[in-house]
Fold:
Amino acid sequence: MTEIPTRQHRPAEPAGPVETPAPAGPVGAAGPSDPPAARRRGLPPWTLLVAGVLLGGALGGAYGVEKTPTYTATSYVIAVPTEKSDPASALGFAQAYGRVATQLAVLGRAQARAGVPVRTLQRSVQTATSPDAPMVAVSATSSRPALAADMANAVSRSLTEHANATRASTHVELLQFSAAMKPTSPSSPSPKVTALVGASAGGLLGGLVLLVRPRRDRHSARTASVPGPATAADARGQL
Structure:
């Protein structure tokens, strides 16, 4: 039998050199057009403190301007011991009369002289005593200076009459030491004071917000880089 020679076929060689693909860069890397992260910043934290001070001062000043001013007048009465008593007893009765001055038994007589109802006297009249002197201070507050003085004098007179009605048994006499005068300046805080108080409160709130606000982590996690594919070997050596 005649053997037919076989022909070995080689793969066709490429016409030109094989191009090697360029390695891919790290995933997540910023391009030339992306702005750096350091430039992406907001307002500094201390702006919250300044904003709180300015806002609180503005609100406090507006409150002081809009609020109606009030006036306070004060009348004084003094407890004097009689021949059958001593100064210590007068001092004790003065403390008791200071608590009785705002009761209905005294204010009921004073409402006709002051020209206001008992509820107004209960809301507007206050008393104060001293542990060292047998004296009672009767103060009245109103938006009208003349009315404040009238209420203080009316309550002090009514208290004197109420105390002297039992002078034979208490051996202490209550006398008017000083009458209340019409006040010339308001006792309520001025707009400057309310503005300072509001600014202080606003600054305090701004500082609290700075303390409780969430803070950004300075050490942010870096983006993991993925290595590029291996360089393609020469096609001739792999085939």
